[in-house]
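Fill in residues.
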């Protein structure tokens, strides 16, 4: 494989290109008119404008992307995540055109892309399932009877899609009809498919996922687990590896179950199997994501494996270069997603210009981004600015490095989720790993707590500065200045520099 096209944009496009270039593979970028000046476009060996800013007129034009590949003699396509990464029809067309898709087969994508089909596919391997229906429900009175049999609260879920869309928690029989109608309506508008099913609602779950990779020779390995329970609107904001709530024995069982899920659909390439884990450490199959995940860097940090390089090697037909026994967990890693969102206003997007953009640096710090100072954040795409990743010898050190990295990250011009992330990773529920997917609901119901937290930080800084002054009268000014500059995270968010 000599040349690959990255059918994506932003930080993931840039991240794939870097690994490809280390393998001496040339890269081709496609870009919309909104991304004309983006770093990933300049970094590629070749770049082609694929259309206007809207995704439907640019990054989702599968046929046009394939034509570009033919014109430029491209050997393979890496889809990143989102856009066409889980579109089985696109993968079929890529293959028919004689181009290698750097990802799984259309069959695997199709089987795992529908939650009901996925459940049916993994049955033979005795994968633990949340109690519920194994078929689509459209008859509301019948669905209500089934829900009563399962026991409230229950969860109505869209069969297609993800991202928390087409999902409704129903607390009691009285609100069932209304909530089901809403779930069906949202599923139709989001995925063009109104099929829903019913599951028992796990009230205080943890969202645990297993990173795996498989080749075309029957080898499947898991790269341990990720904790992804800190979410807003059912979408992840903070991830870590490994989970502090999972024992070695449980990790092994979950990893082996994930590998069986992969075997059930003849999977190859990088993929992630997601589980719900209840308060009694019972875990249940949720879904499989047939692509690279946003949070893959934390798995790379604790294993030393470059997942993009492995994806390319598998697509080349090579066997995995390592076995399960070769893998071990090295330290701990955290990732916070830096979104252009206002956590003080229900995490609403805050699109604008990056007036100041200075990345943190230092040992154990990694920043995957696709923007630069002075750039506008396009309104057409996901508002994620960057992924900030830290690694330490243990969880405590990883948290400490993340706190320092957030302090050093200077972003002005837009509101970001950085202060929410800092608040969260230093919250007692996070530190003792007692949190679940309801963290925002239980501990962030009043966003003004961020401002109160700022005040407490300033008080601590003032006390510490006073102590330094008392002990070092001859250098009081320098001491105070040092303390204040080391606690500038709020200032960086609010453009007070």
């Amino acid at each position: 494989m000599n040349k690959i096209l990255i059918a994506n944009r932003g930080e993931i496009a840039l991240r794939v290109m870097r690994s490809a270039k280390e393998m001496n593979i040339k890269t081709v970028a496609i870009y919309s008119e909104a991304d004309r000046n983006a770093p990933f476009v300049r970094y590629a060996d070749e770049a082609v404008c694929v259309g206007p800013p809207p995704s439907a007129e640019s990054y989702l034009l599968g046929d046009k992307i394939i034509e570009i590949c033919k014109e430029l003699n491209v050997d393979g396509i890496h889809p990143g995540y989102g856009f066409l990464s889980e579109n089985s029809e696109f993968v079929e067309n890529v293959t028919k055109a004689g181009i290698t898709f750097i990802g799984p087969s259309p069959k695997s994508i199709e089987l795992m892309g529908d939650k009901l089909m996925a459940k049916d596919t993994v049955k033979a391997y005795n994968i633990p399932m949340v109690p519920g229906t194994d078929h689509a429900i459209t008859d509301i009175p019948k669905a209500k009877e089934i829900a009563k049999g399962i026991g409230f609260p229950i969860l109505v879920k869209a069969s297609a899609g993800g991202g928390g869309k087409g999902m409704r928690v129903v607390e009691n029989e009285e609100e069932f009809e209304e909530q089901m109608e809403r779930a069906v309506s949202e599923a139709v508008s989001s995925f063009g498919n109104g099929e829903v099913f019913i599951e028992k609602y796990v009230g205080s779950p943890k969202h645990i996922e297993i990173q795996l990779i498989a080749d075309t020779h029957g080898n499947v390995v898991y790269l341990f687990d990720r904790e992804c329970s800190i979410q807003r609107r059912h979408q992840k904001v903070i991830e870590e590896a490994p989970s502090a709530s999972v024992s070695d024995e449980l990790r092994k069982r979950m990893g082996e179950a994930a590998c069986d899920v992969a075997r059930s659909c003849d999977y190859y390439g990088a993929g992630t199997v997601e589980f719900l884990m209840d308060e009694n450490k019972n875990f249940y199959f949720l879904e499989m994501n047939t692509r690279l995940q946003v949070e893959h860097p934390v798995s790379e940090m604790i294993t030393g494996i470059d997942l993009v390089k492995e994806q390319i090697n598998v697509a080349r037909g090579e066997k995995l270069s390592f076995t399960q026994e070769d893998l071990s967990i090295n330290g701990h890693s955290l990732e916070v997603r830096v979104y252009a969102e206002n956590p003080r206003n229900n995490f609403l997007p805050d699109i604008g210009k990056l007036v100041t953009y200075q990345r943190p640096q230092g040992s154990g710090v990694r920043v995957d981004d696709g923007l630069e100072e002075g750039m506008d954040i396009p309104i057409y795409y996901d508002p994620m600015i960057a992924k900030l990743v830290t690694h330490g010898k243990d969880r405590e050190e990883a948290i400490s490095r993340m706190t320092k990295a957030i302090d050093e990250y200077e972003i002005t011009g837009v509101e970001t989720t950085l202060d929410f992330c800092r608040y969260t990773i230093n919250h007692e529920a996070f530190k003792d790993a007692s949190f679940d997917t309801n963290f925002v609901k239980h501990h962030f119901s009043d966003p003004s707590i961020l401002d109160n937290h700022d005040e407490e930080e300033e008080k601590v800084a003032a006390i510490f500065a006073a102590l330094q002054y008392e002990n070092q009268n001859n250098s009081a000014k320098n001491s105070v200045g040092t303390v204040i500059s080391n606690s500038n995270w709020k200032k960086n968010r609010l453009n007070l520099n």
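The chain has a mean pLDDT of 91.
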